[in-house]
Each structure stands twice: as C-alpha cells, then as structure tokens.
Write a structure and sequence with these properties.
Elements (H helix, E strand, L loop, with lengths): L4 H29 L1 E2 L9 E2 L3 H7 L4 H29 L7 H9 L6 H12 L6 H8 L7 H4 L1 H25 L4 H9 L4 H12 L1 H15 L4 H6 L11 H11 L3 H31 L1
Antiparallel strand pairs: 1-2
Helix pairs in contact: 1-14, 2-14, 3-8, 3-11, 3-13, 5-8, 8-11, 11-14, 13-14
C-alpha cells in the first residue's frame, strides 16, 4: 500500500466523525440563519438574507445580554483566579487532613449545573428559609431576596462556586512543580512571604492562569442552566446573557432563523476569544 495513502485511510474515520459532528450542524445553522423560518408560521418560509442578523442585533435585549455576558465572564474569571490562587497557596503546605480538604475543595466542580443552581436557589438564597436568610435574621437584619434584587450577582456566585475548584486544581498542580531550592534560597536571602509571592509564586503561575482563563472563557460563554433554573433571565433582562437570549428566540418565540443568526454570532464571539487566548497562552509557554 502507498505510504501516503495509509495515513489518510487511518484518518478517515476521525475526519468523517468531525464532519458529521461539527461541519453539518454548522452548515445547517448558517442555512437557517439566512431564511425566514418561524415554527408557528411554516407557510411563510423564504430567503431572508441578513434580515435575521439585523433583527437579533437590534433586539432591545441584545445590548443588555452582551453587557451581562461580559460582566458574568469577567467576574467569574476574576473570582476563580484570585481565590483559586489563594486557596492553592493555603493548602500547598503540609498539614493534617490535607488530602480530605483537597477532595472537598474539588468536589463542587463535579456537581451538575442544574443541581448547583437548585441548591443555591432553595438552600442558600431563599429569602424565607435559606441559609443566608437565617444568617441575616440571626444578626437582626432583613433577609435579602437575592434572585429578585441581585439576579446577575446571584448567578455569578453560583457559577464561581462551581468553577473555583477547577482553577484551584490547576494552580495546585502548578505549585507542585515549583523549584523548592529557589524558595529556600529566597528565605536565606531574607525575602518575606509577600516578596516570594510577587517574584516567585505569581510568575510561576502565569501559564496556569492563562490556561484557566482560556478554558473558563470558552465554557462560560455558554452558561445557561443556572440562569434558566433560577432567574429565567429576569427580572426583565437583568440576568439575560447571549445564550439565554438565543434560547428565548428559539423556544419562546419559535423563530429558528433569528436563533440561528444569534448562534452564529455566539460562535464568532467564542472563536475570537479563543484565538486571542490561544495566542496569549502560546506567548506564556514561549517564555
């Protein structure tokens, strides 16, 4: 058999799977985004050009959804990176029960998003019998209805709680590869902990931070379950992100054409973010 043909034959199953799994759905989404296709009006289907994109981008909720998406991404990434580094540094030193603590810290990442949202909605943030309400009443304060008064902040807390273990795990792994001889040498030279943190720990964790930011940004662009389960995008559009706006167009307005246009907008947005972050990670790896 031809040496050039064999590798191509071996790659064929993977290429076919990739084609069926990604290219075909993408092509169908592009097709639906260019036609008028409302499930409640199937007899009015026709070519729409860029009309669906214009409708989606001029939707009164679009600006709020984009702003909420940026706030959600930025807040969750900031919280998980800062607290992830802090927790990783705290449990990096040996102490009794460290193995159990590590398992407990990582376990929230394996909770399903819907279960996570229901737990926070009913156990923690319920204004009558939630844990936070009981704490507020213990100190004589009026309980806060978090999901009504601070919907986006509530979603940020839920998502951060679930993704914090992921960031902590990455930083814990990175700290295991630190050069302990440098730490000992810095101690002998009189460096305090803050100086070690600034000149040794943080530079060493730079690559891990880039990886955490890249992975979280890609996945957090599609946050949906937490919003749908707790606030349903409300009150009004206060907690609606781009993903939930696409859902409303697709399953509440039954407009597959506009929803497909929104999905393509989200794909483009995710790819731009991914390209930027991959370059950032590459620069960190070259250092």
């Amino acid at each position: 058999m031809n040496r050039r043909l064999l590798p191509r034959l071996l790659l064929t199953p993977a290429m076919v799977t990739l084609f069926l799994w990604m290219i075909v759905p993408l092509a169908m989404t592009i097709y639906f985004s260019l036609i008028r296709y409302n499930l409640m009006q199937p007899d009015q289907t026709g070519f729409a050009g860029l009309e669906n994109f214009e409708y989606f981008l001029t939707d009164p909720s679009f600006g709020t959804a984009v702003l909420n998406t940026i706030l959600l991404l930025g807040s969750v990434i900031l919280i998980t990176v800062v607290f992830g580094i802090a927790i990783a540094l705290l449990i990096n030193e040996p102490f009794a029960g460290r193995g159990i603590v590590r398992v407990l810290l990582i376990s929230p990442f394996f909770v399903m998003p819907t279960v996570n949202a229901l737990m926070w909605k009913n156990m923690m943030m319920n204004p009558i019998y939630g844990v936070l309400a009981q704490v507020w009443m213990f100190f004589g304060a009026q309980p806060v209805d978090w999901l009504t008064d601070h919907p986006l902040f509530s979603v940020i807390v839920m998502v951060s709680w679930q993704w914090l273990p992921f960031a902590t795990l990455i930083f814990m792994t990175a700290l295991q590869s630190m050069n302990h001889e440098q730490l000992e040498a810095s101690r002998m030279d009189g460096a305090n902990y803050l100086q070690q943190l600034r000149y040794l720990y943080v530079p060493h964790l730079a690559r891990s931070v880039a990886v955490v930011v890249m992975i979280e940004l890609i996945f957090l662009l599609s946050i949906f379950a937490e919003i749908y389960t707790t606030t349903a995008g409300g009150p009004g559009d206060a907690s609606t992100n781009v993903t939930f706006l696409i859902f409303k167009q697709a399953l509440l307005n039954f407009d597959a054409g506009v929803a497909s246009a929104g999905a393509l907008f989200a794909v483009v947005l995710a790819n731009i973010a991914a390209i930027f972050l991959i370059r950032m990670v590459g620069k960190n790896l070259d250092k």
